[in-house]
């Protein structure tokens, strides 16, 4: 899962980033309104952790920009401003949750897991397609009930497609979502080809009824055989 932290406090931003990365999230940062606006225009995120009070603007204005861009991104407001008015306005503008600062990292992790679980099919703790199951809370994969051992990026790629079965995903979008912002600036995508080749092999050898199909010149999609 890819998260953008919009926070002007450098120490809090770094502490939160390190904590999230330990939980295997892909994390990007924005210290101010201008940087955050540029990032939401250029990239997509599964969730934005958004401070309301920024040195050069309001986080609430960023929520309005997200809406104007037509992006369906989960947003958790993280702010020392805990007035009812700000909370209500943020939720009205499309925020999904509100966590006042100072916050405990454990609670932030719990809120994120709950948010992502709600976005999955019927809030289930596991994601299923064909005979493949992924349990995001424990980073586990099973094929036909038997656990499948994958490396981190193979797992991240599989989960990304399991949440979007049958949807065509271009290589750049996949790279940004699994490896982070600015990966679109690399010279080639050989690192993606290698990971997908290995993932395909693992799925086939395990007897999976789903496969990653390549669409020449565009990207990949996960389909059921």
Provide a descriptive summary of the structure in words.
The protein is α/β, with parallel strands linked by helices and 225 residues long. It folds into two domains: 118 residues, Rossmann fold (3-Layer(aba) Sandwich); 100 residues, Winged helix-like DNA-binding domain superfamily/Winged helix DNA-binding domain (Arc Repressor Mutant, subunit A), CATH 1.10.10. The protein contains eight helices and 14 strands. Strand 1, helix 1 and strand 2 form a beta-alpha-beta unit. Helix 2 runs parallel beside helix 3. It is globular, with a radius of gyration of 18 Å. The model has no long low-confidence stretch (mean pLDDT 89).
Low-pLDDT segments: none
Proportion of strand residues: 15-25%
Q: Which descriptor suits the 3D outline?
A: globular
Radius of gyration: 18 Å
Strand count: 14
At the fold tier of CATH, the topology name of the largest domain is Rossmann fold
Structural class: alpha/beta
Average pLDDT level: 89
Give me the number of helical elements: 8
Percent helix, as a range, is 40-55%
How many discrete structural domains?
Answer: 2
What's the CATH class of the largest domain, please? Alpha Beta
- The string of secondary-structure elements, in order, is EHEHEEEHEHEHEEEEHEHHEE
User: CA-to-CA gap between the ends?
Assistant: 26 Å
């Amino acid at each position: 899962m890819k998260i953008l932290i919009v926070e002007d406090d450098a120490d809090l931003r770094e502490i939160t980033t390190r904590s999230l990365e330990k939980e295997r999230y892909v994390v990007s940062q924005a210290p101010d309104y201008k940087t955050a606006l540029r990032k939401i225009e250029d990239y997509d995120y599964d969730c934005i952790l958004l401070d309301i009070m920024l040195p050069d603007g309001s986080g609430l204005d960023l929520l309005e920009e997200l809406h104007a861009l037509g992006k369906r991104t989960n947003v958790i407001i993280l702010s020392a401003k805990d007035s009812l008015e700000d909370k209500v306005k943020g939720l009205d503008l499309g925020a999904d949750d509100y966590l006042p600062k100072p916050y405990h990292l454990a609670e932030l992790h719990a809120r994120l897991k709950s948010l992502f679980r709600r976005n999955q099919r019927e809030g289930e703790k596991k994601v299923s397609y064909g005979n493949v199951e992924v349990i995001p809370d424990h980073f586990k994969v099973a094929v036909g009930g038997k656990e499948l051992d994958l490396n981190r990026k193979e797992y991240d790629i599989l989960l990304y497609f399991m949440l979007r079965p049958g949807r065509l995903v271009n290589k750049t979008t996949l790279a940004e979502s699994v490896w982070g912002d600015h990966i679109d600036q690399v010279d080639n995508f050989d690192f993606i080809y290698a990971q997908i080749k290995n993932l395909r092999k693992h799925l086939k050898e395990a007897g999976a009824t789903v496969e990653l199909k390549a669409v020449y010149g565009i990207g990949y999609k996960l389909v059921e055989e």
